[in-house]
Every structure is written in C-alpha cells, then in structure tokens.
Amino acid sequence: MAKVATVVTNLVEDVEYTEPVKALRDAGHEVVTVEKTAGGEVKGKHGTKIQVDKSIDDVKVDDFDALLIPGGFSPDQLRADERFVNFAKAFMDAKKPVFAICHGPQLLITAKTLDGRHATGYKSIQVDMENAGVNFQDKEVVVCENQLVTSRTPDDIPAFNREIVNLLK
Questions:
Q1: Which of 29, 46, 102, 118 does the annotation list as catalytic?
Q2: Residue 94: its pLDDT value, please?
Q3: Molecular function terms in GO for this entry (predicted)?
Q4: What value does the mean pLDDT of the chain take?
Q5: Paired sense of beta strands 66-69 and 148-151, if any
Q6: Separation CA 74–CA 61 (nearest Å)
Q7: Residue range 73-120, pLDDT digits in tens
Q8: CA distances from 8 to 35, 71, 73, 89 (A)
Q9: Does 102 qualify as catalytic in the annotation?
C-alpha cells in the first residue's frame, strides 16, 4: 500500500483533509501529516484538530508514494514557505501522484509545475491557474497524465476520493 504525505497548516478546509484521509486509510494506505513542526496540531477552518506527524524538515519525497494538498487557507500559507514549495515540486517532477482540491493547486502554481496540465480548482483561483499555463476544466474531478488529481470544492469530495484511491491501486 502507498504512503501518502499530506501538507497542512492552520485554516485548512476541514473536510478536504478529513474525508480524503479517511478514504485513503480505508483503502489501506498510510497517511502522514506534514507541517512546519512535528508533534503539534493545526486547527481547521471549522475547528477540526489535526495532529502533525512530521516536520517538513524531517521528510523527503523519496519517503512517500503520493502527496495530498487539501484546500482552505492552508495552501496559500504554505506556498509562502519555500520548503513546502520545493516538496510539492519534487513530487510533480518525479511524476508521483499529487492530489489537490479547492485551493490546493495554489501550492503547485507557486512551484511552477502546472504549465500544460489539465486541472481544476476553486473558481477564485481559475485565473491564477490559467496564468500558470493550466488548461482549466470546470469539472468535479480532473485526472491528468495518471498523476495529478484535482477537484473544485467540498461538494466534489466523493469524486475526488474515488479517483485518488483508484490512482493508487
């Protein structure tokens, strides 16, 4: 089974973390939560407390099979930290599976890894994605090159979860 890193910080969209993590774990995969410091917790926009497993300083891409980037305000904060940008870029460069929902693609925009890709995201980042070279598709889930899975909003979580679990089979 796969080992999946998920990068989060405070104000992550709760269900965009909890639901995909549950789907991945239910499918037998290991999910490791990565933030700036290990051992603490972050709080979602709606109050969910999320335990942090590892510090970004203590992980490397080779330790994982895939990356999950939940939305909310978390990805916008994370993209201001070069360590998270480089971590996300390394997954894309290595052609490892990357799953980003809602505002999650913001981290990939900053990593400059979306040029020429088919993807979707929350409507407020559509222009940013198009400026980054994305062929933006307003669909509940977009799978690009059997590597990148993106969705728009919490309403799309069932389709997002289906595709991320299918991609790791």
A1: 102
A2: 98
A3: peptidase activity
A4: 98
A5: unpaired
A6: 20
A7: 999 999 999 999 999 999 999 999 999 999 999 999 999 999 999 999
A8: 6, 9, 9, 16
A9: yes
Q: Given the residues 29, 46, 103, 144, select the one marked as catalytic.
A: 103
CB atoms within 10 A of CB 28: 10
- What is the Cα 9 distance to its own chain's centre? 12
Provide the token pair at 123: 């409507």
Q: What pLDDT is stored for residue 35 in this prediction? A: 98
- pTM value is 0.98
Pick the closest to residue 154 from 9, 8, 20, 4 (CA basis). 20
Q: Which CATH class is domain 3-167?
A: alpha beta
Where are any strands of DSSP class E within 8-103?
30-35, 41-43, 49-51, 54-55, 66-69, 98-101
Instruction: With a cut of 50, list the residues of the chain below it in pLDDT.
Output: none
